[in-house]
Every structure is written in structure tokens, then in C-alpha cells.
Amino acid sequence: MRHLLLSLLMLLAAPAFAQDLASVLDANRDQIERPSRQTIAPVIEALAAAGPQAGAVLEAWADRRLGLAGDRFVIVRGDEALDAVTGAPVPGEVRVLRPNSGVRGVIGAALVQFQLNDPEPSRRAAALDAIARRPDATHLAALRAAAADPDPALAARKARLERLLTIRFDPDPRARIAAIEGFSGDTGADLQAVLNPLLATTRIAAPAIPEGANVAAELVPGEDIPEDEAYRLLVDAGLAPARLAPDAQKQALAAHVAEGAVGGVPVSELSDPARRDAAYDALADAGLVPPAATAAEAEAALASHRFADIYAEPDPGITDAARRALKAMALREGVQQAADLTLDALSLASIYFLAAIGLAITFGVMGVINMAHGEFIMMGAYTGYVVQTLIADRTLSLVVALPAAFAVTFLAGVVLYRLVIRHLVKRPLETLLATFGISIALQQIAKNIFGTQARPLTAPAWLEGSVGFGEIVSISTIRVAIFVLALLFLCLFLWIMKRTRLGLEVRAVTQNPGMAASMGINPDRIAMLTFGLGSGIAGIAGVAIGLFAKVTSELGSDYIVQSFMTVVVGGVGNIWGTLAGAALIGFLQKGIEVMNPANTLAAQTWMILLIIIFIQFRPRGIMPTRGRAAEA
Amino acid sequence: MLIRKHPSAMVFLALLAIFTIAVTLMSEAYGSGLVPTSTVKTLGKTLCLALAAVAMDLVWGYAGILSLGHMAFFALGGYMIGMWLMYARTGEIVAATLANAPIPPTPDELRQGITGQIFGVVGSADLPLTWSFAGSLPAQLVLVLAVPGLLAFLFGWLAFRSRVNGVYLSILTQAMTLALSLWLFQNDNGFRGNNGLSGLQNIPGLTDVPQSVISIWFLWASALLLAGGYLLATWLTAGKFGSVIRAIRDDETRVRFLGYPVEGYKLTVFTISAMICAAAGALYYPQAGIINPAELAPIASVYLAVWVAIGGRGRLYGAVIGAVVVSLLSSWFTGGRAPDLDLGFYRVAWVNWWQVLLGLGFVAVTLFAPRGLSSLVDALAGLRPPRRMGTDLGPDVGALREKEAEA
Fold first, then answer.
1. Which residues of B touch A439 (CB under 8 A)?
2. Which of A334, A342, A460, B240 has the fewest CB neighbours in a 10 Å radius?
3. What's the pLDDT score for residue A615?
């Protein structure tokens, strides 16, 4: 396609410039045949000025497809050879020219302006890409010389590229500073890539700071740089002799052991560093080893030299402008990262909320902590996995899995209540331990059924990918979906509690079971239903968590402590408290992770510590139960 | 005096002595060799676990504080002794290596060598500050009690002061052990991350003594420590202090209104129990040979509570029985020595199903035998609980219920 277009172009333009190109080629035949990097530039300029089809010649030359058939220049294309000037097929033997890479670089630079003026937009875009990928000083001229681009998007890109290249290559410092300042408000990675090298420094040690050097910072040994490192700089610069490393000293001593002593010091005494120094000094006095720089000499050398970071860029105005620009950029990036982080924290909080809400319900109504809650989450996730193996369509299987998980864990919760928890009324600690027994049994049963390896629970395609705003802020769609799910459950829960008969009865039993019972409410039945509801929500949370985490038998225990924390921090028996607790823990965890990004373990440690301290001040959580409903 | 008041302590000590002598006489080192060294180690470790269970019973069964983080103290004790064991042992090896060099090493070089050996796996070359005393056995022995004691004191002070109790307190203690284990898991905190401390079975200075002999020595030490811990716990619970903490368990508010400093009592018993746990851990891990942060996982502490509950809380021998029976059964089942059960349609491999059995068995014990295995002892002794006509001992969440109250 490219070549066809080029040939077409060549044919169209042939009459006007043909003579010119031919004469240029003829005039510089020797140079073109055996080009050299130093002298070829004028020839290429002349060729470039010789009209549009010269572009084809230059391109062929750079691609090692330009050849000589007799005394005519030909362009080799596949099996045939075409005359470079007329485009007519040329028979006979062709000797292909092979310019070296230096020359091809020069040709390439000249080609750029042809490509920038190419009528085909895709070729112009390709030329811009090529410049952006490997810019050099010649491109700047080419960019400036190129005609205005008719495509507005390409024109904008070209203008931006021209400004970027101005920063790097323009000989006039004022133009460069103006270009840097012209970019204010921009956070593009390409701009950073241009600005950062401007601030590159080298660390030097010298008797005095060189005249006219653009100093980034002068360094004081012992304060800005460790003394060892400063001395190493001196040694590297040849300004001071190397100090004797302990290992080298040891080797030197070992090499001169004679009759159980070194330099008059018995070997057995050499476990003392002071005696080692004495032995070495004795050897040095005897001329057996080179004398080592003493500590005092090293100190004097450090004091008599100066150390500095020097910018490679000599002009302080430019480095200042670049630093200012980068600083402003960092600020804007910080704001965007904060936004990104807030989203992350929100999604984490909604996961904790989903995981903890069931726990909070049962804790609120019965004062019972269900240690098997994590295993209900796991059960929900495995239900999702089983449904997915039965139904191939991902979306449909998800739609089926959510209610299925609810049903399975609801049933499990009701069975657990009927068989165990009912018999342990008013014994919360025993309930806690008994449900723990259930939890280890369930975990092991899951291991026995599904094995220890992780099972995949794949999200449908429309949940993959991510929603993004700007370059930095982005959040995966699954997390958005979980956020929506959490909101949905908040609303559902509020509706059940405030608008239904069940909710009314649950609230009555929470406040005063005895009174509720005398009003004709069966507290046992209500407790069972609440327990089932809490477990069912855990099952749904399990499906949601399983979508982004691997489904294993330990899935639940990964979230259970955080869920407990959420409930404890939030306060008992209040959905808003749970919400606040989840938000606090989610934001806290993300916040600490930011301060110590490499270490999520540390984040969790600190979070738990902070929560323990938090409990000091609000022992009953953020939103404690108040009034007559509160227990003593 | 103490013994006369509590004959069960006498019986317990006698049984412990008989057991220890019997194992010694059947050991490879001092007897017929009927009991292999690995079993001796398991028995020694079990005695340490029993002591931890006694400590747990002290806080839960007597003071009503269900701590789900007691294994943190146990493991901390192990870490403290493990630091000395590892440092001193590595020191011996490094010194032996460097002794072959033409120039004798300086103390600094020796320390460098040890540090490199110990911390090479986590990519660190400096000895962490926490290891400052690792070279000295007396200092580390003090730390075995001091560090967990201090942690328990601080945690208890914070928690009891703000009147956190019941389920909240359990969750908080669980969070504490989780936080500690996560902290220890980090490579840069100077405890070798998830590698933990290893090679603890090699006792410095005793390289020539075979493991069969060392294991018996450790069995004796464990038995002695268990006897001491048991007596201490008996003494604590026998006197007025014991009465007060039991009263706190059954009705905290009433004890407070009677003028007792409830927080002080709870803090004391919590700290003492943590220190007993730590001492048990310090003897346990040299026999186990390795310690890593997984030992502090919340689940380990819950198991401790399970042992006490199965054995029978609120009585010291119950805790010992629970710990011994459950942990020995556990190692028998998970060790693959239990024969598979063939149901015809399904073959029950106990390695896979033991956890299920334990979990369900535990639920059954909680439901049907709140006094646990020690109800067997009651049946033998002909003890009957008093008829309280359905009223419980106290309204607090940790209070003993009628079914599990003893005479």
C-alpha cells in the first residue's frame, strides 16, 4: 500500500521535478555510492529539496533498496527494479547500495519531513510516533518546517511534540523555558519523560566546585551523605588513597604470618582490632605492605574537598523551570492519587460492609458472635462456583448464583440456630466457641469436598475491565459492582427493618425479648429468622468476594477478623454503625497502606493496633445502643 | 496446708511424677527404649501445652475472661528463648569456621558472621535492635517472662480500664494475636519473617549430647514446670484472691460495688497467666525445634480455649486433661496412625476428617457436657452439683452456669 501510494505520487509529480532529481543524483553519484556520515549531509539536503519523489529514493536508500543498474539509480521492489527517476522497469544486474547505520540515521531525519507532509494521515501519524519514540535534534527542524496538518488531532499532536522537542533540543534557553512554562497544568507521562532528564545530576568530589557548574545541592559529608560514601567519591576521583578495608587488612596480615606472629604481634592477639592495626603498622614500617590512610588523613581529605550534585544541564534557568513544572505536576498527581485512593478505600469498605452486615445483625439481636460466619461466606463462594460449573453462561450463572447462595447459607444458618445456638441462650462465650467448632468442621469439610487448590469463580465479561477517570484514577468494574451491591443491601436491610412486620418484630426482640414475647411475638422464631437472614447475606457476600478473590476453604477466615473489627468498631445492633465501622476500617487500611506502600502486612498490623486504641475511647463502638434498649 | 485443702493437687502431682518416671524408664536414653525419642518429645511438648491450658483456665475458667490470644504469649516466650538458642548455636558454628582462618576473628567479625548466618535469608546484614541481648542466656530468660508479661499488662490495662468485656474482649484479644503475628511475618522486623527461628532443638554447649538424652531432660523440665505452674495456680485460686476472681467471673458489677478493685484483680490474673504461658512456650519450642509467626495465628489460641472447654473449665486438672487428651488424639489422628474407617460407600481417612470430628465433638461437649471430661472425675468421686433450682451463678457472660458449677 505504502509503496503503491509512493509510486503513484512519483508518477503524478514526475514531470515537474524529474530533471532536477536526476541531475542531483548524477552530480553526487560518488557520494551516494560510498557515503560517509561526515560528508553526506549536503547531498541528502539537496536530494530532499529535489521534489516529492526524492522521498521514495531516500526511503529506498535508507531501507537498502536503492541500487545501481549500470549507471542508472534503481529502486528494488520485490523481484523487479524500477528507475529511481522515471519509475520505469529496468532490466539487468542490480548492485544494491548498503549505507552504514550512521548515514541511514541522517537519511531518516531527512525523510521525516516527507512523511510529515504525506497526504495519507496514517503515515503522518506514524511519522509522529516515530519521532516521539526516538526524538533527536534534527526532528525539531523538520517539525517546524512541516506544513500545518489538516487533521486537527494530528495538528495538536504535532504542536505538542514540537514543544516537547523544543524543551530538549532548542539552542535558545529562553525558548526552552517558555516551552516548559507553556506546559503548565499538564501531567502527561511524555512531558515527565522530557523534564526528568533535565534534572539528572551527577555527584562530584573536587577541591572546589567547578566554575559555572549548575549546582543542584552542595553536600556536607556526615550530614547529606555518609562519610564513607564521600570518601569513596574522593577515591574514585583519584583525590585520596583508598582506606584499608578490614578484609584487606586481614588478608595482608594473613599473608605475612611468620613463626606465629605478624609484625611482632602474636597471632593469638590478633582478635583485638587495636593489635591488628599495630601489626599492620609494623608491616608497613618494614615496607612489606603499602601504608594505609589513617582516620585523621581521611578526615582531612574530606574537610579539604567539596561535594556536590551537579546538573548535567548547564543553564540554571532551565533546571529551575523544570523543577517548578515537576513540582506542580506532583501536586496535581497527588490530588488525583487521593481520588483514586478514596475509590479504593470505598470499595474495600463495601466489601467489609457486605462481610460484616450479617454478623452485625446476629450480634445485635442475640448478642452472639457467630465464628462460623466466615465459613458461611466461603459456602456462598463455593455455591457460586458449583452453579458456574452447571451453567455455562457467566451472566446467567451469576444471576442464579446470588439467590442460590442466599438460599444455601440461609438454610445452613437456620439449621445451625436450631441445633446449636438455641440451646446456648445467654451464654455468648460458649456460643462463640461452639460456632468456632462448627467453623473448623465446615472448613475441613469444604477442603475434603473441593480440595485445597483454589477454585475459579469467573466474573462475566461485562464485569471485567475497569472504569477510569483521567490517567491515574481507575477502578475495576467488579469493585464498582460490589459497591452497588453493598448499597443495595443497605437499602434492602433498611426496608426490612423499617417497613416490614419482620423488621418490627426484630426490633422489638432486640430491645426487650421478654416484653416482645408477651406481645405475642415468638422471640425464638425471630432469632432464627434473623440468624438465617444474616447467614444468607454472608452467602451473597461470598459470591461477591469470590468474583475477585480465589475461592478456597480459607476464604472466610481471611475476612472474618476484619468483619469482627467492623462490628466492634461500628457498635452493635445498628446498621449505620456497621456502615461507619466498615468505612473507618476500609479508609484506615488504605490510608496506612499509602504511608507504607510496599507492606500491606504492616498496614494490617497498624490498623488492628489503632482499632484496639480506638476501643479505649469508644468501648461500645461508633454508634452504641442508647436508652432503655442498651444493656448494662 | 494447700495440699490438705486441695487433695486433687496431690493426686495430680503424684500422677505427673509416675508418668515422668515411667517415660524415663521406657526411654531410649535411660531405659528400655520402648518409647522412641520422637514420642518423648511429643509428650514433653504436651506437658507444656497442658501448662498453657492451666494458664488459660486461670483467666477463663476462674476469672471469666475468654482470651482468644493466649498463644501469642506462649509463642512470644518461645521467640525469646529461640533468639538465644539460635544466636548462641550460630555463634558456635561461626566460631568453629573462623577458627580455621590464619588470623583469629575479632568480636565484631564474629558478630558479623552470626548476623549474616541468621539474617541472610531475609536479606539483612545488621543485627536488629531487638536482638541486643540475644547473646546472653540470663537476659533472654528474663525477657521470656518480661516481654509477654509487659504485653499482657499493657493490653489488659487498656482493655479492662475501658471496661471492655465479654465477646468484645475476646475479639480484641484475637485481634491482638493477629496483629502480632502479622508484625512478626514482616521480614524487616528482625524476627526472620515467615522463616521464623529454626534449629532450636540444638542446644548450645550440648552438641555432643544425643537428642534422645536431651529430649528426656526437656521432659523432666516440662514436668517440673507444669508441677510448679499447677501449684502456683492452685495457690492463687485457693485463697482470697481466688474467691475474688471467681466472684468477678460470676458477677463483676456486684464485686465492684463491694469495693474490690476489679480491674486490678483482672489485670493481675491476666498478666500472671500470660507469664505462665510464656514459660510454657519457652520450654515447648526447643522441643519443637522451630517457631514461626503461624504459631500466633488466632486459630491456635482458639484451640487452647477448646482444650480447656473439653477438659472442663473452672478446674485446673480439667484444663490439663483437656490439653493432654485433645492434643495427643490430634497428633494420633493427623499423624496418619489412626486406621481408616470403612463405611462401605465411603472410606473415612482420619487425616482429612479429624478436624470435622474435633469441631463437631467440641460442639457436642459444649451442648451436652459443659463440665467436659472432668465430669467423668465427678462421676467417679460421686460429686453432685448443688440444686440451685435453675438459677445461675451469676449474670455475667463469663459466669459459670448451673450445669458446670461444681460442689
1. 359
2. B240
3. 76
